[in-house]
């Protein structure tokens, strides 16, 4: 689970080197910032992301960077989506290492019980 506040501080302090991209799993963009840090363009981008993360709601951040996961309540079932879509999202989170096998099984059982 990525945290919005952590991403904001990383963007503020390490945005010149693309730190926010590495934190959010966008390694290619992070490497581009590392290669271009001397141009100060990544610094401007880091400041921009700091402001965006500050203004963004937790729900919007989670939908964009955590595949709709909510840290407090577990799994965020998207209204109108099928159970198979939700299971696919859970599987991707497990494969990407965002959740453990135990979390995956617990959330899958909760989703199937609905």
Describe what you observe in this structure.
Helix content is 66%, strand content 0%. It has seven helices and no strands. Helix 1 packs antiparallel against helix 4 and helix 6 runs antiparallel to helix 7. The longest helix is centred in the middle third of the chain and has 15 residues. It starts with a helix and ends with a helix.
- Helical stretch tally: 7
- SS-based class: mainly alpha
Helix percent reads 55-70%
> Quick one: how many beta strands?
0
Spatial extent as radius of gyration: 16 Å
Strand content: under 5%
H/E element string? HHHHHHH
Measure the end-to-end span: 24 Å
> Mind summarizing the main beta sheet?
none
- Integer average pLDDT: 86
Low-confidence stretches are none
């Amino acid at each position: 689970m990525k945290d919005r506040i952590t991403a904001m501080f990383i963007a503020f302090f390490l945005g010149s080197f693309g730190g926010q991209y590495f934190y959010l799993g966008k390694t290619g963009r992070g490497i581009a910032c590392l290669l271009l840090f001397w141009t100060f363009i990544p610094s401007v981008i880091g400041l921009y992301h700091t402001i965006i993360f500050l203004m963004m709601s937790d729900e919007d951040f989670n939908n964009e960077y955590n595949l709709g996961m909510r840290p407090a309540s577990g799994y965020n079932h998207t209204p109108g989506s099928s159970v198979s879509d939700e299971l696919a999202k859970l599987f991707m989170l497990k494969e990407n290492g965002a959740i453990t096998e135990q979390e995956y099984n617990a959330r899958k059982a909760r989703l199937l019980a609905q």
